[in-house]
Structure formats: structure tokens, C-alpha cells
YcaO domain-containing protein (Sphaerisporangium melleum), 389 residues
Amino acid sequence: MQTDTSSLSGIFARSDQAKVRLPGTDRAVDPATTLAMAGRAARAVGVTRVADITRLDTIGIPTYQAVRPASRTLAVSQGKGITPELAKLSAIMESVELWHVERPLPAGTTASIRELGDRLGYDVHALAACAPSVLHDGLPLGWVPARSLVDGAATLVPRDTVALTLDVREGWNPPVFLSSTNGLASGNTLVEAILHALYEVIERDAMTAALHAGGEMGVRADPATLGSPVADGLCETIDRAGVRLEVRSVPSPTGLPCFLARITCDDYPPAFFGFGCHLSSEIALTRAITEAAQTRLSYVSGARDDLWSDFNDDQGKPPARPAPITGPGAPITPCHAHATLADDLEDVVKRAAVAFSHPPLMVDLTDDVIGVPVVKVIAPGSRVSPEVM
């Protein structure tokens, strides 16, 4: 790919012309450098404690929590990884990301869709709406600047698709768009952040489509067929803990590998899920598995603000033990990312633009004082539901 002639070449940093390949992820620089940046940012946004909660569970996949008491959304952010260093980094960066969308985000423009006309370059009705929604072309909305990831063109997106806070808002606030962290991500560079955000948007679109289709989500897959030492190590760790793992390959209109991981055990019967998407089959798979372990630890620790209240059935009894997994899963086709983050981004953006029939859009939320690139990616035409967030 010719990244030097890209219409988005202005956002590329020198480190985006390569990548540091790590177990379960790709980054622009080494973990120690990223962790130093994240540590400085953590203090600036009010993180008071970073805790290793891995040993609260029997599985042993590294999981950390970052505590930010003054948060306007979640006071506890959680992170997972193949190594403790990567899990700690994941937790801190999630907390830093939330700080950026919690801040007051003034509307640069207030207008209706009808008044903006062709200035937007996309269909606002293709954005994820809440239920019910009062969106119509004459409704005045607050707008913030954004850029198309296809050609770099300037546009606007509704402020409420970006900002997120649990503060009580004064005045009339009609229900219009689904507020969520979908597409919120950070990184060492803007390109790294945008990639993480796009992978999440694509992953949740695939999971939402599979969920709404009914029946089994995707096709059972056999992690052992990928031939990945990292994935094999995770599977062995889970098996030693007496926990059952089921992996399903879920189709995406982008063609990217998307996986769902489901873990259960007799001692703690509820099913816990994790999702993953990436150009690399190995990274997509390991993300899904580590996220399933992280989800389970959320309930074990009880520290998160967003745990489901109906975790048990109506009688307060634990869920029934799931049926045993029988028969082999389908083989996983190895897919690989490119040699550079810049090439990865061009590939994923092109796939998303075709799959969703709209260019994905990016809002740069980076605060120079905090010093961490943070973005919100919004992909008109993509699907997302609360069940997969």
C-alpha cells in the first residue's frame, strides 16, 4: 500500500511506518514507553490506584483495575493482556479515554440536519439511535468537528454521539442517539488509537448482527488449529483452572476475523463472554479469550459500576449449568496484519467504508496537557446494541 500518498498522511507519525509486535496486540512503541506515557496521564486525570486483581480468580489471565473516584462515568476501569504489563496498561488507558469523553464538549454549531444539508457528507439517520428516539431532520442538534477517514474531509457529528457522562443535565435533552464508549480508544499515536477504535466498532457490529439474527452466534471454531503459541498458552491456562472455553467465529461484512469467546465452569456456572476483532486472526482470538476472563473477574471482584443486575434468574438462583461442548470446532484460517500501522489503517478504513456504505468518521479528543492521543470513531451504517457493549 502507498501510505505516503494517502489523503490522511498528515496524521501519520514516524512510528506508524513500522510496528512493535507484542503478544496479543500491535503498538507503535514498546510497552515500557507506553506505560510511562500512561502513568503520567493517569495522575493527570485522577487515577488514584491501579490494582492487580488477577488472583481473585482461578484462571490466572492478567487483569488489572484502574480506580478514578471523581469519574463522571465508571469509577473503575478494567484491562486485560497476555502479560501483567500489558494488562496494567490496558486498564490505565481505558480510564484515560473515559476522562476525555466526560469533559464538557461545547457544540461548535447548533443546527438541524436540514439546515446543514450537504455539508455533512453522510446520512445522520445511519448513526446508532437510542430507543425510543425523536430524531428528525428539523431537530436542532449540537455538532462537533470530525474528519472522514476515507478522504480526510472535514465534517460534523452530533455532540451526543461523542460526549458521555452520567451527570444530570439541565434543560430539555430529547432522546436521540445511543450514548456509549463504542469507538473510543487511545494509543501512542493517532493512527494507533484510530485502529483500536475501528476494530471495536467492527467487532460490535458483527456481534450485534449475529445476536439479532437469533440462534447460535457464528460457527464453533477450534483455537488449536490456528497454530498460535500465544492462543495455545491461553487455552492451556483456562483448561488448568477447570474452566471450559468455547470459541465462535462470527462473520463481519468487512471480512476481518471476529471471534466470540465463552467461558463456563461447574463452580461458577454463569457464562462470561469476550469479543475480539483484528486483521490478525491471532490477535482477534486472544483478545476475545482475555476479555472473557476479564468479564468474569468483573463479577468476581464486584467493583465495576456497570454489572448487570439480573445476573441471576427471577428466583435468585444461579443459572443452570450449560450443556457440555461436544465435537470438534471448525479450523481457523490464519490472517495476518501488515508490516506497518499505517498500512493496517488504510486497509481497515477501506473495508469499513465498503461494509457500512459510509466513510468512518474520527473526532480527535486529544488533550495536549494529558499527552495521550485519544479519538472517538463513529461509523455511520454500523450496528451496535447494549448487549455487546
